[in-house]
Write a structure and sequence with these properties.
The complex is a heterodimer. Chain A is about 40% helix and about 10% strand. Chain A contains 16 helices and 12 strands. The chains are: A alpha/beta, B alpha/beta.
């Protein structure tokens, strides 16, 4: 092993891959048969966390950062003057195996700049995965990037070795893509996505008949959008996301706040703050859609095209629909419990289990770990003391903000002043 | 007012179950508590009674619990016991009595203090177990053994054995709990519990270069440099970082520990 050269390549190619947010290593079951290496139980593990607080679960690298495209938002764009490097297939395999054996990682996340053409690149990625599975008997997690424009045959082969495949659509709207990546077209992203989806659907149905059918991308597909680079509203982003969840059975859509990396006038300039609060609100909305039974139109619509920055989207929905509250937690159904601000799905489950034994009071609820500062305005329980005052939405919001503290407070401070005429809000 | 009885045991799970057996046999019911013998103090008001560990009694209680309440409740009791919290025995005593009386009284009855507490403790145990799955860092030794040291908050290694056995089926490994002075060792066939004593320098890794394989320090260096290059500097958030990787684990993590001399 040429240690110094490998180290240099690893630094360059890990640095370039870090803007891919996905780090999931869950959702795939591969059991270790015949004393091989690795075992995925379906549970993901974060082996470490970077200093920006993100999970390190996979060895996330590019095969190469040579690229024939020149997308404005990307660090590895052709016109960018940076150090270039490329791994050999065997080098990636060795790194993965040796990191895995030391329990550093759950597996490999392999992406790449596009060199020569899409198929050529995709073939190299598949070679790595194939070698790991067949020569090293590796049962850890493999996430491969689907290269836009790769052929259907290659996408089929990729799914046989990888646990997850993903194509990043990057820019939520077509007009944004035209502006920032004029050489790419949306069709190229969609085509491999569609192929993988069709194969997954086919695998699921044939699996019922053929028992030992080889696995096809058991952890599904994901995609990623850059937030705050091309001027979309929250509604535009979330409707695109809802479309991908529905149409392409996405396991996850990731939102990545744009980190300024170039002086291109089409993009936010270097030094602009990364929109992390906005990113957070989008993820909250994403969760409400996937797990809390909300419909996208309830949260974002023509009238409310953007999410509130000072309060979470569930609270903001509740304030717009006060007529549905307060909810009696000893009586309400699961759907309505999950809609109370400050109550998460774990708490919903606890409430449903506990209320079979007795009628619950404030004391019980508090001990279960519910965010009472929000929940108390929207629920009643077996107690005569509850918030009986008839308050307007603005009043409730003011009270909640007054009692809470957030590290983002200074980001949205400007908006608080709107209420200062009607309410004594301490900023 | 009658005096309180304090049953003392040797700290093992069987010992604890033997105490539960005595409670039922001697009909001690309420005015009783259980303590590890090294933590119990003789006092003027209480009767101290040492309960010797009795395998037969212990397995009668265990099998009774499993057959009456199911393996899930049994799992919860065992996991909560591993927490080694100072009053865990008493909480579990109340919990087991409640379960024996009527198993449906413990399932999901989060408004009962003992049930809620056991569920919370089991949750922390689960978290610690999961952290160990994540934070173990093997070092390849000269003789081909993958060796790791840890110091978990709770005694969770028994819960980790299966995970590592399934995962590293083709390599010999050992995970050593520095705090409790024992480890689990896998010999390509079975996992055994071993107690060994290591020198101070071996455990804190100061003379690591003497016994690790030649490429080991290089891979540690590669891992460290990988770890450093994936950070996005403009998003730095130290508070979140420390929340996910608490400082007490740092010295066992090759990417966070101070660099060894090569």
């Amino acid at each position: 092993m040429n240690f110094n050269r490998i180290k240099e390549k690893l630094e360059i190619l890990a640095d370039a891959a870090k803007y891919d947010v996905s780090c999931a290593s869950s959702g795939s079951k591969r059991s270790n048969k015949g004393k091989g290496l690795g075992n995925s139980s379906g549970m993901g593990i974060c082996h470490s966390y970077t200093e920006d607080g993100r999970c390190v679960s996979l060895l996330k690298i590019l095969l190469t950062n040579h690229c024939i495209f020149d997308c404005a938002y990307c660090v590895t764009r052709r016109s960018n003057d940076i150090k270039r490097a490329a791994f050999k297939v065997q080098e990636v395999v060795d790194l993965t195996i040796n990191f895995y054996r030391r329990n550093y990682i759950e597996g490999l996340f392999l992406s790449s700049g596009i060199f020569k053409n899409a198929d050529y690149t995709m073939e190299r990625l598949i070679q790595v995965a194939k070698k790991l599975r067949e020569e090293e008997n590796f049962n850890g997690y493999i996430h491969l990037k689907s290269i836009p424009g790769a052929s259907d045959e290659l996408m089929y082969e990729a799914g046989l070795y990888a646990d997850r495949l993903s194509v990043n659509i990057e820019i939520p709207s077509e007009k944004g893509l035209k502006l920032l990546a004029p050489e790419k077209n949306r069709e190229d992203f969609i085509q491999p996505m569609k192929k993988v989806k069709d194969e997954i659907v086919r695998y699921r149905s044939e699996k019922k008949v053929i028992k030992n059918l080889p696995k096809y991308a058991p952890a599904g597909q994901s995609t990623q959008m850059i937030i705050g680079a091309s001027g979309e509203t929250d509604a535009e982003i979330m409707y695109t996301s809802a479309f991908f969840y529905k149409k392409y059975n996405m396991k996850r859509v990731y939102y990545s706040g744009y980190v300024p990396i170039s002086h291109d006038p089409r993009l936010p300039s270097i030094g602009t703050e990364v929109p992390m609060l906005r990113e957070n609100r989008l993820y909250q909305t994403d969760w409400l859609l996937r797990f809390y039974g909300f419909d996208i139109q309830e949260l974002l619509n023509k009238q409310y095209p953007n999410l509130d920055s000072d309060i979470d989207p569930k609270l903001s929905w509740a304030l717009r629909n006060l007529e549905q509250f307060p909810v009696d937690i000893n009586m309400a159904d699961k759907r309505m419990l999950a809609r109370i601000p400050g109550i998460g799905l774990r708490s919903v489950q606890k409430i449903m289990a506990a209320r079979k034994h007795r009628r619950l009071t404030w004391d019980h609820i508090r001990k279960m770990g519910i965010a009472m500062n929000r929940a108390k305005y929207f629920m009643t329980c077996a107690s005569r003391n509850y918030e009986i005052k008839d308050r307007t939405a603005a009043q409730i919001k003011g009270l909640i903000l007054q009692e809470s503290s957030s590290k983002y407070r200074k980001t949205y401070n400007g908006q608080l002043t709107l209420f200062q005429n009607t309410l004594p809000v301490s900023a | 007012m009658t005096a309180k009885t304090i049953l003392t045991y040797d700290g093992s799970f069987e010992g604890f179950l033997s105490c539960i057996f005595i409670i039922y046999e001697e009909k001690l019911k309420n005015r009783v508590s259980i303590k590890r013998s090294d933590q119990a103090q003789d006092s003027f008001f209480d009767n101290l009674e040492n309960v010797p560990t009795n395998e037969t009694n212990a397995s009668r209680v265990w099998e009774g619990l499993i057959s009456k309440c199911g393996t899930r409740i049994g799992q919860l009791v065992f996991k909560a016991f591993l927490s080694e919290l100072p009053t865990i025995e008493n909480t579990l005593m109340v919990y087991i009595q409640l379960a024996f009386k009527n198993p449906s009284k413990v399932k999901g009855n989060y408004s009962h203090p003992a049930v809620l507490q056991v569920s919370k403790i089991v949750k922390s145990i689960g978290r610690e177990k999961h952290r160990m799955d994540a934070f173990v860092r093997f070092k390849l030794l000269k003789d081909g053994l993958y060796f790791a040291t840890v110091a978990p908050d709770f005694n969770v290694l028994p819960l980790n054995a299966k995970h590592f056995k399934d995962r590293y089926a083709d390599q010999r490994w050992m995970i050593y709990d520095v705090k409790r002075g024992y480890g689990i060792y896998y010999n390509i066939d079975t996992v055994e519990t071993v107690s060994l004593s290591f020198s101070e320098t071996m455990l804190n890794g100061t003379d690591e270069h003497l016994y690790v394989a030649t490429e080991e320090l290089q891979y540690q260096e590669l891992w460290r440099s990988y770890f450093n290059s994936v950070t996005i500097k403009s998003r730095k958030n130290s508070k979140l970082h420390v929340q996910h990787v608490p400082k007490r684990y740092w010295k066992y993590l090759s990417e966070k520990a101070p660099r060894p001399k090569i």
